[in-house]
Amino acid sequence: MKKILFLALIAGGAFYAYKTGRLSGGGGGGGAFDKDGKPTVMLFTGAECGDPCEKIRNELKTRVPTFEEVVLTEPDNKYRVNALPTVIVGKQRAVGDDVHALAGMLGEVLGKDALTRRERIVMANHFDAQDKPKVVLYGTKWCGYCKAQRELFEEKKIPFEDVDVEASEAGAIAYNALEGSGYPLTYVGYRRFGGYKEAEILAAVDELTKQPQANLR
User: Fold this and answer.
1) What pTM does this model have?
2) Which residue of 53, 103, 188, 213 is most buried, as measured by CB atoms within 10 A?
3) Rounded to an integer, what is the distance from CA 39 to the centroid of its chain?
4) What is the pLDDT of residues 104-126, one digit of tens each?
5) Strands (DSSP E) along the chain, which ranges?
C-alpha cells in the first residue's frame, strides 16, 4: 500500500515541480552535509521514476564531481522526500526534472563550478561588485506581465536591471544562453522565476539580496 501511495506522490511531485520548480530551506527534512559540515549532493530516485530521474542523474554527472544516489521504494522520513526525483544540496532541495531550478540551486550552494560556461558568463551579471545578488528581469516592452512586474519592483522600491531582449543584442544572447522560453524571466542571483510570480520573487529578494553568495569572479 505504501508503495502505491508513493507512486501517486511521484506524479503529484512532478506536477508541483512543474508549478514551482523548487523547494527552499530543506523542506523541513534533513540536509546533506559531510562530516566537516560541507554541503554534499544527494539524489533520490526510484525504480518507477523513469526518464525524469535519468534526466537529473545525467545533469548532475555533468555538473558535480560526486553525488550520492538513494533509490527509494517508499517515502523517506529522515529527509522528508515524497516525490521523485529530489535533489538535496546542503539545506536546499529541488524537486522534479527542471534542470534550470537544479542549476540555480547548485550555484547558490556550491558556486560557479557547478554552472556551465555559458551560465557562468551570463550569471556573473546577476551579482554586484560585492557578490550580492541583483534582480534581473528579461522581458519585452509589449509583455503585459513584464509591465506588471516592473511596476511591482517600482512600487516596492526594489532595484532591478531591466533587460529588453528585443532591443538589446546582448540581452537576447543572455536570454538564449539561459534557455528562456517565455516572459518575464526573472533572476534573483542564481534563482530563476519563469512568469509573473509576485510572492515567490519578493520572498527571494528578501532572502537573498542582503548577503553575498558564491563568488563568481
Assistant:
1) 0.82
2) 188
3) 16
4) 999 999 999 999 999 999 999 99
5) 41-46, 68-72, 86-89, 92-95, 135-139, 161-164, 185-188, 191-194
